[in-house]
Amino acid sequence: MSETLLIAKNRDLYFFPYCTEIDVWSRTELLDAMANPLLSVNQALWSEKLSHYQLIIFLDYGFSPEMAVFVKRYTAAKVVLYFWNYFAADKQLLLAQTQAAKVVDEIFSFDPIEAQQYGLLHNSTFYSLNLKNRTLPIQYDIFFGASNKGRVDQALELEKTFELLGLTTFYHITKGEGKTTSEYVPYDQYLDFVFQSRAILEIMREHQTGLTLRSMEALYFKKKLITTNPVIKDYCFYHPHNIFVLGQDDNAYLPEFMQKPYEPVKKEILDFYDVSAWSQRFAHQDLEAFQRLEYKNFQNVE
């Protein structure tokens, strides 16, 4: 039985089903109880569910301060809020509300730059070593999979550039997020698109610098990454044979970049981002490891 609980909007999304080293709940398990007086007052039931945990991690997406208030009734665990998304206006509001309510023990950001900017603690993004690369025939040079967050026009312009350079593309763009959108595909099926491609295209939001899932997929499955992230070269896994930075590297070099052999990344770095090591860092931070294995310019908030 794990001593760590991760509470996400939906435990079936992304790679969460593979995070077997920790327990993962959907937020509905709490919301249903909070809305049902018969469940919420069942002290014995919720004490049994929560009392053995030493650490409870709320992801920002789907979190409300009332959820932390609820779990704290039934556990002495350390409760943290982990921002796994760029600090757009809605996330800034959530941060202010949570800080004012004083309902969590610590607040972390996945982005070392934004952690500094907002005076938060930092822990890296995370992924799972339990996901394995499936060998499928390569069908595309570049794959782009994302929800439409104002990036479609840029993606389509880049597609024209790629085609002029003789590179093939496959785009899967959804109109919304999560399972409710008609274009939704399960994550395992999404990964088949990754496995059939030589490179992954990552388009960041304006001012966004934190690593996305696209970076982790490229890293763990040994795919080239073509990205607009302006600070990606400061991350310890960066290698010019593996990562092409749009707006910094010459587009004319892209076909040659695609032909370069992939340079393997140290296993120590893959281990660093794995959910097991990630979850342990909420209790025992190794600041030297952040500089050595994650971000070269890392500075923790004192």
Mind sketching the topology for me?
Blueprint: E1 4-8, E2 23-26, H1 28-35, H2 37-40, H3 43-50, E3 55-59, H4 65-72, E4 78-83, H5 89-101, E5 106-109, H6 112-118, E6 121-122, E7 140-147, H7 152-164, E8 169-174, H8 187-195, E9 197-202, H9 213-221, E10 224-227, E11 243-245, H10 254-259, H11 267-273, H12 275-280, H13 287-294
In the CATH hierarchy, the third-tier topology of the largest domain is known as: Rossmann fold
Rounded to the nearest angstrom, the radius of gyration is 20 Å
Tell me the number of helical segments per DSSP (H or I, 4 or more residues long): 13
Overall mean pLDDT: 93
Number of self-contained structural domains? 2
Beta-strand content estimate = 15-25%
Q: Which regions contain 5 or more consecutive residues with pLDDT less than 50?
A: none
Which bin fits the share of residues in helices? 25-40%
Q: What does the main sheet amount to? A: 6 strands, parallel
Identify the CATH class of the largest domain: Alpha Beta
SSE-based structural type = alpha/beta
From the N-terminal CA to the C-terminal CA, the straight-line distance is 34 Å
Number of strands: 11
Overall shape: globular
CATH architecture of the largest domain: 3-Layer(aba) Sandwich
H/E element sequence: EEHHHEHEHEHEEHEHEHEEHHHH
The strand order across the widest sheet is 2-1-3-4-5-6
Protein name: Oligosaccharide biosynthesis protein Alg14
Organism: Vagococcus entomophilus
Please explain how this structure is put together.
The protein is of the alpha/beta class and 302 residues long. The chain folds into 2 domains: 4-122, Rossmann fold; 140-265, Rossmann fold, CATH 3.40.50. It has 13 helices and 11 strands. The chain has helices at residues 28-35, 37-40, 43-50, 65-72, 89-101, 112-118, 152-164, 187-195, 213-221, 254-259, 267-273, 275-280, 287-294; strands at residues 4-8, 23-26, 55-59, 78-83, 106-109, 121-122, 140-147, 169-174, 197-202, 224-227, 243-245. The chain has a 6-stranded parallel β-sheet. The protein has a 5-stranded parallel β-sheet with strand order 8-7-9-10-11, sandwiched between helices. The longest helix is centred in the N-terminal third of the chain and has 13 residues, at 89-101. The mean pLDDT is 93.
